Amino acid sequence: MDLHYLEAIIPKTSDGHIDFAAILNNIQSQNTDLKAFMPTTFSERTSLIKQNRYIIHDLKSTIADLQNSNLALQSKQSQLENENINTNKQGQELKQEIIELKQYLCRNNLEISNLLKSQKKDIIQVMKSLQEAAGVSFVDKIIALHRVYT
């Protein structure tokens, strides 16, 4: 094995021998640099690892709680969406029933347009005139008359 390249980097004394003191000083200097780079002791690192484990455990617990809350909220939202769909459907059905009831109630109604407010005609007399002009009898079947101005 060729070790000539090591001779260039190994310090030597003035008489050509290996300078172990210089090597030891170099190792101590590197050790000091490493200590400065890693200022915490093993026990401090162990303590930090334990603290981090507790923090990670708490975070996992919080994440699980948030996931459960999210699932519950999604379920509630789905339920509310279904209720909203049903409510809208019922509303549409009720609107249709109201339209049908209005049509049923209005089946015997008669609307006479162009009665001006200023004319102040007796509406019963107007109905009697219509009855005579149409040649039919309906005035006695009238339950109520309402004047709606245009």
Topology readout:
Elements: H1 4-9, H2 20-37, H3 42-105, H4 123-134
Can you give the mean pLDDT?
83
| Low-pLDDT segments, ≥5 res | none
Summarize the biggest pleated sheet.
none
Between the first and last Cα atoms, what is the distance in angstroms? 119 Å
Q: Approximately what portion of the residues adopt beta-strand conformation?
A: under 5%
Query: Could you spell the SSE succession in H and E letters?
Result: HHHH
Structural class: mainly alpha
Tally of contiguous helical segments = 4
List the quaternary state of the chains: single chain
| Overall body shape | rod-shaped
How would you describe what is shown here?
Keywords: Coiled coil. The chain is mainly alpha-helical and 150 residues long. 67% of the residues lie in helices and 0% in strands. It contains 4 helices and no strands. The protein has helices at 4-9, 20-37, 42-105, 123-134. The N and C termini lie far apart (119 Å).
Précis, in short:
This protein has 150 residues and is mostly helical. It is built from 4 helices and no strands. It is 67% helix and 0% strand.
Provide keyphrases for this structure.
150 residues, 4 helices, 67% helix, 0% strand
